[in-house]
Specification:
The chain has one domain (13-152): 3-Layer(aba) Sandwich (Aminopeptidase). The radius of gyration is 15 Å and the shape is globular. Helix content is 22%, strand content 33%. The chain has four helices and seven strands. By secondary structure, the protein is α+β, with helices and mostly antiparallel strands.
Length: 155
C-alpha cells in the first residue's frame, strides 16, 4: 500500500512522485517510491527513492537512494530530501531506515551525517548481491532512527 506524498516539501524543495513499484518477493525486493527532487519552482535537480521494508538485501543497498545533478550540488539538497523521505517512511511505521554509500564517496557520507545518521560499519557486499555485479565491494552503512530528534539533522 502506498501513501499520499503531497506533503513531501519544505521551504526549498519538493519531492515529486514519478512512480511506485510493487514488491517482488522472488527477488527479495520491497515496495518502492521513486521521486524527482525539485526546487519550489518545479525545476528538477535530482532524484531519490524510498524502499519500504527491512531485509538483508536492504542492509547493503539501503532504504534510500539519492542523486543530485552536478549543477545543483553543494546546497545540501540530498540531505533535505532524506529528511522528507523520513517523513514518508514514518507513515509506513518503519521505525528506522538504512542508507549506504561507497566508502570513497565523501559527499554521500557527509549527506548521511548532515541528515542525522549513525554510522554502523563498513560492510562487505556479498557476491550474491546485485551491487557486487556492478563492481561495488564495500558500503558504509548508516542507520536513521525515525523517532530520534537527531534524525532531523542539521541541513
Amino acid at each position: 500500500m502506498f501513501y499520499d506524498t503531497e506533503d513531501l516539501r519544505d521551504d526549498e524543495i519538493l519531492l515529486k512522485l514519478e512512480r511506485t513499484c510493487e514488491a517482488q518477493p522472488e527477488k527479495d525486493w520491497v515496495p518502492a517510491y521513486y521521486f524527482g527532487i525539485c526546487l519550489k519552482d518545479g525545476t528538477r535537480i535530482g532524484q531519490c527513492d524510498l524502499r519500504i521494508g527491512h531485509n538483508d538485501r536492504l542492509y547493503i543497498g539501503g532504504n534510500i537512494g539519492y542523486g543530485i545533478d552536478e549543477a545543483y550540488r553543494g546546497h545540501r539538497y540530498a540531505a533535505k530530501a532524506c529528511r522528507l523521505l523520513f517523513r514518508q517512511a514514518g507513515k509506513h511505521d518503519l521505525g528506522y531506515v538504512i542508507i549506504t554509500c561507497d566508502p570513497d564517496n565523501t559527499a554521500s557520507a557527509r549527506t548521511c551525517e548532515l541528515a542525522g545518521g549513525q554510522y554502523l560499519e563498513t560492510a562487505q557486499v556479498p557476491e550474491t548481491h546485485n551491487m557486487y555485479e556492478e563492481g561495488c565491494r564495500q558500503v558504509r552503512v548508516y542507520r536513521f532512527d525515525l523517532d530520534r530528534k537527531e534524525t532531523r539533522g542539521t541541513c
